[in-house]
Amino acid sequence: MTDRPETDPAAGAPPRPPGRLYRAWDSDLAYAFRHSPVALVSAFVTLVLVLGAVLAPWIAPYDPFNPATLNLMNGFTPPGQTNAITGDTFLLGSDDQGRDVLSTILFGLRISLFVGVAAVLFALSLGVSLGLIAAYVGGWTETIIMRIADVQLTFPAILVAMLIFGVAKGITPVEYRDQVAIWTLILAIGLSDWVQFARVVRGATLVEKNKEYVQAARLIGRSPVAIMVRHILPNVLSPVLVIATISLALAIIAEATLSFLGVGAPPTEPSLGTLIRIGQGFLFSGEWWILFFPACTLLALALSVNLLGDWLRDALNPRLR
Known about the structure:
Layout: H1 20-25, H2 28-34, H3 37-54, H4 56-59, H5 101-137, H6 139-153, H7 157-171, H8 181-191, H9 195-208, H10 212-219, H11 224-232, H12 237-260, H13 272-280, H14 289-315
Helix pairs in contact: 3-5, 3-14, 5-6, 5-8, 5-9, 5-12, 5-13, 5-14, 7-8, 9-12, 10-11, 12-13, 12-14, 13-14
């Protein structure tokens, strides 16, 4: 008979490896986040604004875009005061049409966040794809893609977005313009913002494609598409995530700028930029709250997202550790 090792019951079972949630909480990135007051405050402000936008239909005091619930007699009610005629009270006041400013801000946040996130996702997908193709394929393909990017960089992004929005609006039938205005806005901002993703991914891919794991994938017969998607792409995503976070703040500001200029969200679906444009007309007549509160909300949202992007850039930079 062969000797079999006996298990010491006193030793107990071996400890289980930590789960994914524990490893994520114990990571360097999570530690840096927990010990950064700026990141914590920015994340809290962003979370509050995002939840306010998502839950707007349930937490908004009024439905500001339902004509049946509007009362023109509530117009220009100051913040926190009771209207002498109707007896209604508005925490942040009301605008010229009697709409609750707090409710319009919550619903306007939905449009601004949706346009910003969708535009960044579109720009990220387009820029990452073109950057991977340009660096991996090379030759005339790389030359054409990067020369288009260089030409686009010579123009301000907001002018490119206005040009694309105007062209798309011009070729859209009049009866469908308001229905597709939001999607046209997403297309315009996304096409004006893809260049930085493409340039960063191209530079990182030029470094990665000459490494041994890519050469090994070629030797075993992997297709170029599989190599780009399954091998190179995961290794170039860190700078892309940082750029996407910062670009989100810029996309929100770009949407507000276009809407403020009257070429963005339609009046039936006003964003924060549209609300600021409406409030600007009453600033010098004494109704300051119509402009002030939407502008402060836009400032808080853009600043908090931008600070989160700056923190993420520093946290993922190995030279700063």
